[in-house]
Q: What sequence folds into this?
């Protein structure tokens, strides 16, 4: 019949490619998103799992069964632990077990040999002994061979030669001495080496973490050494997500085996951190899924909406053509084909391209964010989401085509304006959209936190739809009112009247609103997620660089740091005591340098740095500085405290004591029983040659029965001397009560704590010391330090009030002893401690407890940079660095949190959503260009300047989308404010969120969108003018 | 056995709603178009010509009265029947090329598309019409043809299915005289050849004269007819006689007249002279 080339739909595509190309592009983008999201999510989850496992260490990546070795029953214990670790079913996931017995006590070993003989080493050592079984074959031997009977392996680096006989001595219930010969050395740094050489220490069961001396298991049993036996099975490799159910099944099997008769008979203890690690990873996975899935869902929904808008525009442009098939009475198949074949071909082709696009985008973005990662495209979630995207696209085009394809034939012959009232279907859809949006948003507002895949995370779309629909109704109403008046300008004719006549043109504005809202909210979420993790890293690290240091006993830590950094702008001394929870976690910082050195933000404490310093280091009086090597106190009117309820005066079992502080800490001097006269310390007992500070003056009891006691006296003179020199009295100001206070110190019981009370008398300082419970040390102290250690307490800290003193709580000091703390306030977050713990001033803490007895970790916090001079000065003072942490590394690690990665990877997904919005706007404009041809031809005939016309056309195309962009920015910002603080962007405690909305993403999204949409408006205007000129 | 007329309307009324108002476009049209006859519908704008054509095409249902195409009552026909009628019995040449044609396709493709699936039909008639109208079948998209070329293709498509009745709405609008005449030549020749009845709407008397009958519509009714022997008023089914347009000035609306037989088989109409009956 014909010479037409190809079927009619192919010819139509060739001759009218715009609609099909753009529809294919939209379908491609929708499919790309549906491929991208599950691929990236899985990559994030796998990365999180792999990194958690590699950071977890042996204790979190191995299953361990251990049991005490009863005398002569090593084989029974061995069988019991092996039965537990062998209960693992999926052996391919685990390494073969390593069985090792380890003594609890430390053995000393010395080489036997001629002393002083050249070439003979005389080094020895002390460490537990470990008995290794078949696992010796898997040890990395540096020299020699596995030990047999009465043979030993030493850790590599030992100076003892092979063949050297050793004397080994082991304490315990049954002390053991035996001899063994060194047959080699082993590498204790490999996995098997670490397990073998120190199982107790590695798996947190106590014991040394230093490498053990290894004997054979037989030797261990033969010598009947006491200790524990371990069977350890580490994971064979980095496991895949698919292996997780199998691993969990094996963990359950191990737990069950420990309770079996065999395991229970030897009281086998199972230890593994793997379950907890997997639970943490699972939480992160769930939260990451929430973030990625909902972003992708919004992008795909937007794609379908855009496809529907485009197809409905095409339908409007081709309604007459689609009606022609009905007019001609053509068969149903031809009629349906006329409408649906082209868009169906576009969707299928586009989807195929989209799969490739999604894979390619994932291949590009995943490595740049996650590092080396394997993408798995042929998995059920990917396939299912692709199918869903294709089906959704197909559904969208069918629904959107239906109206135009079923337009009453008579209407095709009439050119009518759109009805002034909304059709029933449209009204129902719009009303449903509003009700859904309001309902879900109301639920979100009343929820404190969103957990799980919540529909509430569709807030950006819902808010945008809500705003868009409302704005649409308002705009149509305004435009129609405006259009009733005669137009005075070309823009009025071309733009406003046109929009009034065909308000469906504003649908693109709603689409832009949703697209911009989703893009903006996603970007804000990503920025916020990264910032929260960085903030948490800053809070938990404390400063740009944190050095863990060892300080010599005779060096004042805080003074050493001051000498190393006189400027006070580079280094800060910090002591950190992690005593569990609440105020047992104490951080003492040098508040004079906190502002300059710390990486903290003042918003975390809710106070300025000056306010923090004033709170923790309040102004104080002068110190009583003593010089000399002997102290003399002159007392008068010494005796019992007056009053019937006062504790008794027991001079026989009471000593007057004085504590002073120099660079090497506190030193106590005992001056003898309280009596009138001069009480002197022994010659040379006062360590104040270079000056020292008097900490307190009080009483000590030597009563073995710890009875209540007290005394009252008048101190008339405090003096020091050097050598045989004369006494030098301190200023008489120090005999005034205003210079002294009751020392609370480490009082534990508020109801009966020791107290010291001062009065003024003409003779001197009247002091009354009382210990109503006995066993304590009543004292008075100069007012050069607060009575209580001022602390700022984290918001979530639980405290125990100390009765009798305002704002006092029971706590611990840096020496690990009880200390009464004075609360200076609760703050949202503290450095290192977050919301649980107490922060104090290091200098003040050093005045209230002996700094030389501090059990806290000593750290030097440094500002960014290398600080070689500071480090050299610290080394010169004997301060040794034993560990280093950096904020940069902490931030890098924190940003690898799965939810953060998911939020960041949501940005390309949102960018795709915005791109398809712009593409759809352009396509709608190009497809509908021909509908303006009659109007524009008439204007041209009337002599209207082409340039003016184009400007008006650009304005007409840009105005709705500009409105949509502005509304989208508002909607996206509102949605972010609504949900950001409720998103699962971080787990555990963290600093306050602070600013929820960053201006950067708002500016970038709005400006970028506006520019792109302006370009589409120009292109649309050109197409319209060309169509108008052609007719 | 008498063949059913290609088109019959009896007391045809059509009312539609526009801008909140009911508009009676047709107010009782009686019209018979026998098989093979060519009829032109004339009348001023708003007289109901296009509405009559739309109803005849089955695109709108009559509000009252009956309308039949080839014996099929369009008022009670199902959608399926209407669909079959449009496929097998009617040829449509509606106003505007974009409604009649696939503008992006060639003329040959348009014809092939129109006969697709119609039993016993091929492209011969359509191609013959193209040849008669000097339009190349494969010269590219129809949108690139001249207005005359597009109308020729529209005619070819309308006649390709060998309909019994061709409905044409202003087929020669936007054509110059030569093109108009050429198109009409082709239309007359082919419809005669195929025995297709024609109902053609036009404003142009010159176009109407090419048809066998000219029916003038006025205010939704048939006013006059001209079959070549001059214009004649048509008595309606209810006995009304429309006064010819050129005589309406003698009898304005509301005038009381006396109607009498004149004894020669005709009627005499004169205004009533009784002063009491004169309406000023």
A:
């Amino acid at each position: 019949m014909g010479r037409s080339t190809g079927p009619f739909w192919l010819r139509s595509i060739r001759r009218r490619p715009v609609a099909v190309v753009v529809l294919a592009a939209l379908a491609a983008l929708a499919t790309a998103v549906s491929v991208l999201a599950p691929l990236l999510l899985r990559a994030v989850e796998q990365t999180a799992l792999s990194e958690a496992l590699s950071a977890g260490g042996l204790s979190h990546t191995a299953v361990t069964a251990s049991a005490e070795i009863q005398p002569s029953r090593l084989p029974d214990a061995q069988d019991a632990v092996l039965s537990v670790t062998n209960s693992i079913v999926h052996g391919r996931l685990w390494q073969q077990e390593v069985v090792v017995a380890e003594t609890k006590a430390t053995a000393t070993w010395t080489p036997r040999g001629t002393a002083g003989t050249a070439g003979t080493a005389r080094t020895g050592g002390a460490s537990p002994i470990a008995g290794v079984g078949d696992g010796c074959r898997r040890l990395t031997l540096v020299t020699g061979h596995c030990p047999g009977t009465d043979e030993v392996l030493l850790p590599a680096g030992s100076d003892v030669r092979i063949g050297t006989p050793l004397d080994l001595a082991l304490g315990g219930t049954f002390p053991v001495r035996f001899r063994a010969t060194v047959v080699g050395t082993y590498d204790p740094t490999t996995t098997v080496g670490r397990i073998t050489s120190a199982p107790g220490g590695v798996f947190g069961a106590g014991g040394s973490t230093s490498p053990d001396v290894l004997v054979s298991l037989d030797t261990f049993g033969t010598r009947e050494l006491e200790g524990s036996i371990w069977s350890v099975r580490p994971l064979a490799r980095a496991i895949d997500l698919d292996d997780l159910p199998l691993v969990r099944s094996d963990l359950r099997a191990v737990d069950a085996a420990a309770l079996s008769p065999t395991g229970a008979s030897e009281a086998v203890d199972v230890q593994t951190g793997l379950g907890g690690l997997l639970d943490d990873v699972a939480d992160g996975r769930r939260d990451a899924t929430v973030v990625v899935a909902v972003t992708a869902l919004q992008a795909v929904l937007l794609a379908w909406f855009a496809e529907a808008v485009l197809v409905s525009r095409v339908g409007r442009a081709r309604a007459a053509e689609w009606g022609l098939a009905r007019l001609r009475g053509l068969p149903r198949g031809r009629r349906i084909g006329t409408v649906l074949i082209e868009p169906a071909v576009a969707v299928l082709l586009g989807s195929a391209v989209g799969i490739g696009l999604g894979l390619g985008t994932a291949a590009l973005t995943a490595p740049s964010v996650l590092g080396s990662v394997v993408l798995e495209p042929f998995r059920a979630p990917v396939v299912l989401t692709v199918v869903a995207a294709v089906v959704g696209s197909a559904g969208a085009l069918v629904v959107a085509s239906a109206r135009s394809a079923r337009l009453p034939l008579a209407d095709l012959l009439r050119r009518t304006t759109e009805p002034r009232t909304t059709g029933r279907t449209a009204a129902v859809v719009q009303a449903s959209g509003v009700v859904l949006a309001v309902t879900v948003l109301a639920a979100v507002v009343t929820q404190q936190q969103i957990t799980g895949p919540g529909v509430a995370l569709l807030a950006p779309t819902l808010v945008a739809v809500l705003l868009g629909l409302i704005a649409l109704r308002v705009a149509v109403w305004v435009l129609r009112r405006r259009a009733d008046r005669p137009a005075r300008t070309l823009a009025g004719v071309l733009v406003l009247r046109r929009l009034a006549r065909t308000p469906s043109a504003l649908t693109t504005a709603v689409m832009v609103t949703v697209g911009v809202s989703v893009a903006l909210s996603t970007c804000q979420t990503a920025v916020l997620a990264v910032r929260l993790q960085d903030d948490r890293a800053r809070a938990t690290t404390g400063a740009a660089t944190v050095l863990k240091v060892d300080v010599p006993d005779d060096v004042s830590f805080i003074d050493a740091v001051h000498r190393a950094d006189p400027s006070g702008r580079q280094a800060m001394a910090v002591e950190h005591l992690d005593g569990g929870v609440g105020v047992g976690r104490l951080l003492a910082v040098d508040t004079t340098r906190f502002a300059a050195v710390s990486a903290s933000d003042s918003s975390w404490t809710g106070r300025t740095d000056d306010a923090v310093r004033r709170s923790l280091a309040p102004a104080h009086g002068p110190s009583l500085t003593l010089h000399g090597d002997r102290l003399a106190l002159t007392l008068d009117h010494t005796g019992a405290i007056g009053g019937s309820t006062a504790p008794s005066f027991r001079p026989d079992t009471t000593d007057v004591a004085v504590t002073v502080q120099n660079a090497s800490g506190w030193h106590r001097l005992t001056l003898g029983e309280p009596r009138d006269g001069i009480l002197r310390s022994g010659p040379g007992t006062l360590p104040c040659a270079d000056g020292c500070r008097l900490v307190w003056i009080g009483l000590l009891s030597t009563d073995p029965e710890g009875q209540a006691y007290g005394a009252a006296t008048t101190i008339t003179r405090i003096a020091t001397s050097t050598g045989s020199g004369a006494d030098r009295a301190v200023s008489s100001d120090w005999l005034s009560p205003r210079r002294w206070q009751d020392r609370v110190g480490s009082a534990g019981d508020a109801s009966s704590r020791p107290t010291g009370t001062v009065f003024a008398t003409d003779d001197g300082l009247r002091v009354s010391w009382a210990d109503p419970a006995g066993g304590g040390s009543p004292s008075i102290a100069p007012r050069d330090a607060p009575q209580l250690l001022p602390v700022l307490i984290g918001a979530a800290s639980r405290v125990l009030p100390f009765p009798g003193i305002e704002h006092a709580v029971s706590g611990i000091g840096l020496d690990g002893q009880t200390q009464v703390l004075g609360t200076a306030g609760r703050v949202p977050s503290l450095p290192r401690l977050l919301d649980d713990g107490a922060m104090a001033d290091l200098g003040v803490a050093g005045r209230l407890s002996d700094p030389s007895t501090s059990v806290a970790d000593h750290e030097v916090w440094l500002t960014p940079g290398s600080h070689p001079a500071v480090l050299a000065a610290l080394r010169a003072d004997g301060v040794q660095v034993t560990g280093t942490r950096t904020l940069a590394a902490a931030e890098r690690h924190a940003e690898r949190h799965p939810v953060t990665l998911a939020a960041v990877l949501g940005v390309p997904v949102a960018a795709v959503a915005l791109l398809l919005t712009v593409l759809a706007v352009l396509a709608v404009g190009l497809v509908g260009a021909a509908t303006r041809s009659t109007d524009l031809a008439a204007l041209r005939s009337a002599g209207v300047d082409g340039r003016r016309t184009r400007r008006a056309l650009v304005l007409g195309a840009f105005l709705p989308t500009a409105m949509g962009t502005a509304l989208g920015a508002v909607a996206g910002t509102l949605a972010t404010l609504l949900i950001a603080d409720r998103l699962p962007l971080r787990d555990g405690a963290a600093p306050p969120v602070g600013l929820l909305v960053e201006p950067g993403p708002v500016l970038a999204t709005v400006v970028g969108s506006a520019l792109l949409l302006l370009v589409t408006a120009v292109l649309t205007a050109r197409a319209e003018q060309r169509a108008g000129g052609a007719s | 056995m008498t063949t059913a007329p290609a088109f019959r309307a009896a007391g045809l009324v059509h009312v539609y709603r526009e801008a909140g108002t009911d508009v009676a476009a047709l107010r009782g049209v009686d019209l018979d178009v026998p098989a093979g006859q060519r009829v032109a519908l004339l009348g001023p704008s708003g007289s109901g010509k296009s509405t009559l054509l739309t109803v005849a095409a089955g695109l709108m249902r009559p509000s009252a009265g009956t309308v039949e195409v080839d014996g099929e009552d369009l008022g009670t026909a199902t959608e399926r029947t209407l669909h079959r009628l449009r496929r097998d019995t009617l040829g449509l040449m509606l106003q505007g090329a974009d409604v009649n044609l696939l503008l992006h396709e060639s003329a040959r493709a348009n014809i092939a598309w129109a006969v697709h699936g119609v039993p016993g039909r091929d492209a011969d008639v359509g191609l013959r019409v193209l040849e008669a109208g000097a339009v190349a079948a494969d010269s590219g998209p129809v949108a690139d043809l001249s207005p005359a070329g597009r109308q020729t293709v529209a005619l070819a498509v309308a006649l390709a299915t060998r309909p019994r009745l061709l409905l044409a709405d202003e087929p020669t609008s936007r054509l110059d005289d030569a093109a108009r005449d050429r198109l009409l030549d082709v239309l007359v020749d082919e419809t005669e050849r195929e025995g297709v009845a024609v109902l053609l709407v036009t404003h142009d008397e010159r176009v109407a004269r090419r048809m066998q009958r000219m029916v003038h519509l006025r205010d939704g009714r048939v006013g006059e007819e001209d079959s070549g022997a001059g214009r004649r008023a048509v008595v309606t089914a209810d006995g009304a006689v429309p006064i010819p347009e050129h005589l309406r000035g003698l009898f304005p609306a509301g005038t009381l007249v006396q109607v009498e037989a004149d004894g020669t088989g005709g009627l005499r109409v004169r205004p009533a002279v009784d002063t009491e009956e004169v309406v000023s």
